[in-house]
Amino acid sequence: RSAVMSEIEGSRQRDGSSISSRARVCFHCHKQMVFLWPYRCHLCSSVICCDCCVKMSMPFRPCVHLPLSLIKALRLSKEEDSATQDQKSSQLLFEVECWDCSRVPLVFEPHCLAQPLASQRETIMHWPSMDICTKCEQYLLHVLSSQQQCIPPRKRSRSWTETELE
């Protein structure tokens, strides 16, 4: 058995593909090699590369237990167009700095953000965050969007003046 292992190792070195035995391939893209310190999805526990990893941030840790109807998803992405990137940056600042208690912002941010948008992160720097994979991000965004569509319109509450007239 040791002869076979040394033969395989010798063929790897001849091919120039001498890769550490601790290296793994990203679970999602199957392209990038993940070495000693891989990212791990907090939700599905899969090993992922930097490109397939998204940081999910929220204002307070107890927000995890809130109903989905109270969550507002903000998805940041790398934009090629500077005007679109500026618009997303200003939207992020407005939503994060002026959020009301009726809707809690949940920010999805790729690890490879462009510099101008990454500089706006100082506002959410101290928020609790966790690394999730892009598939779990898509799932959460789908669940949040379908939940928002299913919310029935609120019944109009009666005002004090209407109550007094009766």
UniProtKB/TrEMBL annotation:
<dbReference type="GO" id="GO:0003779">
    <property type="term" value="F:actin binding"/>
</dbReference>
<dbReference type="GO" id="GO:0005938">
    <property type="term" value="C:cell cortex"/>
</dbReference>
<dbReference type="GO" id="GO:0051639">
    <property type="term" value="P:actin filament network formation"/>
</dbReference>
<dbReference type="GO" id="GO:0030041">
    <property type="term" value="P:actin filament polymerization"/>
</dbReference>
<dbReference type="GO" id="GO:0051295">
    <property type="term" value="P:establishment of meiotic spindle localization"/>
</dbReference>
<dbReference type="GO" id="GO:0048193">
    <property type="term" value="P:Golgi vesicle transport"/>
</dbReference>
<dbReference type="GO" id="GO:0045010">
    <property type="term" value="P:actin nucleation"/>
</dbReference>
<dbReference type="GO" id="GO:0040038">
    <property type="term" value="P:polar body extrusion after meiotic divisions"/>
</dbReference>
<dbReference type="GO" id="GO:0030659">
    <property type="term" value="C:cytoplasmic vesicle membrane"/>
</dbReference>
<dbReference type="GO" id="GO:0008017">
    <property type="term" value="F:microtubule binding"/>
</dbReference>
<dbReference type="InterPro" id="IPR029901">
    <property type="entry name" value="Spire"/>
</dbReference>
<protein>
    <submittedName>
        <fullName>Protein spire -like protein 1-like</fullName>
    </submittedName>
</protein>
<dbReference type="GO" id="GO:0036089">
    <property type="term" value="P:cleavage furrow formation"/>
</dbReference>
